[in-house]
Design a protein that fits this description.
This protein is α+β, with helices and mostly antiparallel strands and 441 residues long. 65% of the residues lie in helices and 9% in strands. The protein has 11 helices and 7 strands. The longest helix is centred in the middle third of the chain and has 89 residues.
């Protein structure tokens, strides 16, 4: 009910709020102050009882019995209030004593005043009462209660003097104690408010950290899902599409009895399936790498494979690779992105363009890296893309955007199509040292 003596229970403030225990560092200081207050109250009450008993000289009186009963009742009320608050702090379903805090304080003060009426030996209990009044009452009322308690204490001390004379020490002592109690009580409240603010900030930081960790996990999942979508589209999906195309061509060859063409197409199916399987293993095992192969060599090989697939399918498609500028080393991530872009673009040419010629040009310019895929096919209206090509173009744009590049699609019905990719010179960090020295000299 008063200043809680536990380590985790709430403190009952003047407005009836139950505060949670502050952060561990300041909590120890506050706990020592609370425990000291409770022990001080018990010690002063016990001291008053002992001194009063000694003053009787071994002769019991009815008044003495009443004093002892009041002392026991005061101890029970004080202990009961603090114990009730402690139990509620540990288990919120138990009786909540907070609404009755001021009633409890009033009972404690009245019992103390009754004891003080019989003996000045209980005068010093006023000092722990000062702290309780400052803590449980609003600041203005708390200060007024301290002043009233101090005045009652001074009057009682004067009345209990043998001759009833006013001694300066009887006024200065309680007054000094009241001032000290007010300063200490206000300092305690300021310390507690600071500790409570630290606890609140710590809780906010913990909650923010948990939310950030959850967001990072979710972002990681989404990023991995997007990566797998790109890789599956650019490798497995393209390979399976080629296999379907070759299978249909093989079926036509078998129907016509052309076993030579059927065998050739089956070999293409086998090679395509093996390549797709190896690509799947590659992006699962070590995504974004190119097994040490130079980008121009990979693109040249891709063009040859695409032309072979077209010929095996009976398509009169010539696929040529051209290199512009002096080749430079390209980072694996960028190399992989351009390879996937080339695979997707040539796959679209093979499936949709009905072209006779396609040219893939890789350009190493002064301030950018370019990749153009041209075909002389039927073309289309870019505003109404070919069904099935939209997903690949979207994935391609997102992949290049992550690398600081971009892609432009140009086409018109009957005029072929061009996929133009531009990546800024950020890949220059991977140039050989000799090339960088020549440029800076």
């Amino acid at each position: 009910m008063g200043l809680d003596g536990g380590t985790t229970g709430p403190l009952t403030a003047a407005d009836g709020r139950a505060f949670r225990a502050p952060a561990q560092g300041t909590q120890l200081i506050l706990r020592v102050l609370r425990v000291s207050l409770h022990l001080g109250f018990a010690a002063l009450l016990l001291l008053g009882v002992v001194r009063y008993a000694l003053s009787l000289g071994g002769t019991p009186t009815p008044a003495a019995a009443l004093v002892f009963a009041l002392a026991v009742l005061l101890a029970a009320v004080y202990l009961g209030g603090t114990a009730a608050e402690k139990r509620h702090a540990l288990d919120a379903s138990r009786f909540d004593p907070v609404p009755y805090a001021r009633v409890w304080l009033g009972a404690v003060v009245l019992l103390w005043a009754a004891l003080l009426f019989f003996s000045a030996d209980f005068a010093w209990l006023a000092f722990p009462l000062f702290f309780l009044q400052l803590h449980l009452l609003p600041r203005g009322w708390g200060l007024l209660a301290v002043v009233a308690t101090t005045a009652a204490l001074v009057v009682a001390l004067i009345l209990h003097t043998p001759d009833g004379t006013v001694n300066a020490a009887l006024v200065i002592g309680p007054g000094f104690g009241a001032v000290f109690a007010v300063i200490t009580g206000l300092s305690y409240q300021a310390l507690y408010r600071e500790a409570e603010e630290q606890r609140r900030v710590a809780e906010v930081l913990r909650a923010t950290r948990s939310e950030l960790a959850a967001s990072q996990r979710e972002a990681g999942v989404l990023s991995e899902r997007a990566r797998l979508a790109r890789e599956i589209h650019d490798t497995l999906a393209q390979g399976l599409s080629s296999i379907v195309l070759m299978s249909r061509a093989t079926e036509r060859s078998l129907d016509s009895g052309d076993l030579t063409s059927a065998r050739e197409r089956l070999r293409v199916v086998e090679d395509t399936a093996s390549a797709a399987l190896e690509q799947a293993r590659d992006f699962v095992r070590s995504p974004g790498t190119s097994a040490g192969t130079e980008l121009p060599d990979m693109l040249r090989s891709l063009c040859a494979d695409t032309q072979r697939q077209a010929q095996a399918a009976g398509e009169p498609l010539e696929v040529r690779f051209e290199l512009s500028g002096d080749p430079r080393e390209v980072p694996a991530e960028l190399s992989q992105a351009l390879l996937r872009a080339s695979q997707a673009s040539l796959a679209n040419v093979l499936r949709h363009a009905h072209a006779t010629r396609a040219v893939l040009t890789l350009g190493f310019l002064e301030d950018e890296l370019t990749l153009d895929v041209y075909d002389d096919g039927v073309g289309f209206d870019p505003e109404t893309p070919v069904p099935g090509a939209g997903l690949g173009l979207g994935l391609l744009r997102s992949r290049l955007l992550a690398l600081g590049g971009g892609v432009v699609l140009e086409s018109a019905p009957g005029e072929g199509a061009v996929v133009a990719i531009r990546v800024p010179e950020r890949y220059a960090v991977a140039r050989p040292a000799a090339v960088r020295e020549e440029e800076t000299s």
